[in-house]
Design goal:
The longest helix is centred in the middle third of the chain and has 26 residues, at 187-212. The protein starts with a helix and ends with a helix. Strands 1, 4, 5, 6, 7, 8, 9 and 10 form an 8-stranded mixed β-sheet that branches. Strands 2-3 form a two-stranded parallel sheet. Helices cover 43% and strands 14% of the residues. The protein contains 11 helices and 10 strands. The protein is of the alpha/beta class.
């Protein structure tokens, strides 16, 4: 009697886990995979665009923009892993680090393996985000690396002097105006900026070292020089775990039946259904268009730096 109860109990458990448990294998194969609980599921999240350059008219990566999507992907209980599709030339270091930390926190909390698949590029902050994965793969033509920090700008002091423009700035605090593009460059300001950039570089290098240290195959001076490489070269340096795409790698790892649902976040407002606008739309759109154009030019510069 006890043995019969145990068999019935076990059958009940299997039926709850998979309602099609008692069907013959041939019939089970005819059932759509989304209804079957015996088919492995790996949610996929796309993380694309320059980082921290948020604008309604340009795709950008920020923690606020991708947090909900990441949480939805890691909340899929039956999923053994989460896959990240990364395509970014880099951008703001803080947003890069915040996204990295959120992915690691969710992976540890939900006990999920994390894959990263590089598309066109995972450079600078894009590679920092990729380091949140337990394994990183890329297409042979992908651009990977650029583990460094950069600050760039323009100097207009000679231009305004030529046209007789007088710059007037009033501050409380002797260091409040630093590296003003309309004033001559000061050596002490450059020295201080150099110190800040080096400190950021140390944080970045420590992060990569903590996640990839045992895999790196060359001296750190090369890896952390800020140089970028094709994926075939980056693989030899230890920056990647292999070459391949999301479908090929996940099918090889979990079988041909693996489901890879794309978990998507909200669309930009101009792709949503109309009906939610009120007064002042024209001025608002003009302002957003201008800010979007500036963000797009900055992002274009980041991609151009990689030759893309």
């Amino acid at each position: 009697m006890r043995r019969l109860e145990a068999v019935v109990s076990r059958a009940y458990i299997f039926t709850m886990a998979d309602p099609f448990f008692f069907l013959p294998r041939r019939l089970r194969s005819l059932i759509p995979s989304r209804w079957r609980r015996d088919v492995p599921v790996v949610p996929v999240v796309r993380l694309a665009g320059a980082i921290g350059m948020n604008s309604p008219f340009s795709q950008s990566l920020t923690l606020a923009g991708c947090a909900r999507t990441l949480e939805k992907a890691f909340a899929v209980k039956e999923a053994p892993a989460v896959a990240l599709l990364i395509n970014s030339p880099g951008g703001a270091p803080v947003q890069s680090h915040l996204i990295f930390k959120r992915i690691r926190a969710l992976a540890e909390e939900k006990d999920k393996h994390v894959f990263a698949f590089v598309e066109d590029a995972a450079a600078s902050g894009g590679y920092m985000i990729a380091c949140a994965a337990d394994e990183i793969f890329a297409d042979p033509c992908s651009v990977v690396g650029s583990i460094g920090v950069v600050s760039a700008g323009f100097g207009f002091d000679k231009a305004i002097a030529r046209f007789g423009v007088e710059r007037r700035v009033y501050t409380a605090g002797e260091r409040k105006v630093t590296l003003d593009p309309f004033q001559p460059e000061r050596a002490e300001d450059v020295e201080r900026l150099d110190g800040l950039l080096k400190e950021l570089h140390v944080v970045f290098a420590d992060l990569v070292r903590s996640r990839r240290g045992s895999a790196l195959t060359v001296d750190e001076a090369t890896v952390f020089s800020g140089e970028f490489w094709l994926a075939t070269q980056a693989l030899g340096l230890g920056l990647l775990d292999g070459l391949g795409d999301v479908r090929g790698i996940l099918k090889a790892r979990y079988g041909d039946d693996v489901r890879m649902p794309l978990i998507q976040g909200p669309s930009p407002f101009f792709l949503r259904k109309p009906g939610g606008f009120t007064g002042g739309v024209g001025a608002g759109l003009a302002h957003q268009a201008a800010s979007g154009a500036m963000a797009a030019s900055e992002e274009r510069a980041l991609w151009a730096r990689l030759g893309l």
